[in-house]
Amino acid sequence: MAIRLSNSAHARETLALGLPLIGSHLAQMALHVTDTVMVGWYGVVALAAVVLRASSFFIVFVVGSGFAKAVMPMVAAALGREDETQVRRDTRMGIWLSIAFGLVVYPVFWWSEPILRALGQDPEVSAIAQDYMRIAGLGMVPALVVTVLQSYLSALHRTQVVLWVTLAAVAVNIAVNWALIFGNWGFPEMGARGAAVATLVVQVVSLVALALYAHFLPALRRFHLFQRFWRPDWPAMRQVWRLGLPIGLTGLAEGGLFQASALMMGWIGTVELAAHGIALEVAALTFMLHVGLSSAATIRVARFDGQGERAELRRAAKVAVVISLGVALASILLFLSAPRPIVALFLDLTKPESAAILAYGTVLLGVAALFQLADGMQVMALGLLRGVQDTRVPMGLAAVSYWLIGIPCSYVLAFPLGLGGVGLWLGLVVGLVCAAASLMWRFWRLAR
What we know:
Helix content is 84%, strand content 0%. The chain is mostly helical.
């Protein structure tokens, strides 16, 4: 019998899924913020090493997390078909690929010092960063498996446990950092290496908590998630690979866009780079709202796709897009109405350079308001396309938009045309608009 849900019912279910996912993404950001702040208290060199580690780890993690993110629509679609065996097969092979990826990339962390020095980084900072990454790199496997389990549980509408485990991880991270970075409570003082141990502990604790929940919760036992875990399932593995690798490369292209923008802003000046970092941090916080809603849209669209309910699929997508539009408009209003107070939160206004950073950051935050709509729409479109298991063409569309349109526009506007940092950000707006338009066109073409 055909399913018919009202728009309000679609909105309620999207928010019920999306709000805990938004909270878990914000909590994940808090993990990185606490590392940065607490190591910053310890020392400048240690902080620089942790910043290098964070960007390096993030780039590698984004690629590997594509397999985990592929599990979400695959599990939701299998549930729509009422194929519980396939739920187990897809998730298990997502875990296999994540473990394999984490093991393959670990040598990058082990020999990170010569890599960082070849990229022009300070020798002392590179050495400390390598000590950090040799420990933290051990957390790549559990971090990726945690992401698989989060995708699996989210597809089963168990998003609240994902939120609570992530919040608990923040508390564990703060406690272990306090003990090991500074040598409190009788523990040895380890500096940056203490933060690395804390990161590893957090990933392992999160993995154990989610695995126990997935295995022992009575409502989930019927999936037998870890049953005959050692047996390969080649068809399921090929499908996870086929969907997951483009997702990871798309994330790499998007992350690289903003890394490149930071590099070009550094060519303009130190004040401009500092203001860029603040404005980007604020934009990242609002972006997490769209990421959570996008994941909820992935789950709902995939479920209706599995059921063959195309009309409800389109209606669920429309409602998710409208909610994301509302969030974007609220963000635009906030950025335009109170840019100075927002930027001031990140500055010590007693320092002489803060006035210049505040003035420039206020201008950039106004430009950031322009790409709130496009940024929200492009990540929503990617989520909707993952829901119908379309990832390869979107990868190409996103890469072209970011790198063949966005980056060249940023460079031309910033330097030959002399618009500086504002021109650089306007180029980002152009790239994001192209991505949003092309990806949305792709989804609605497939949805019809």
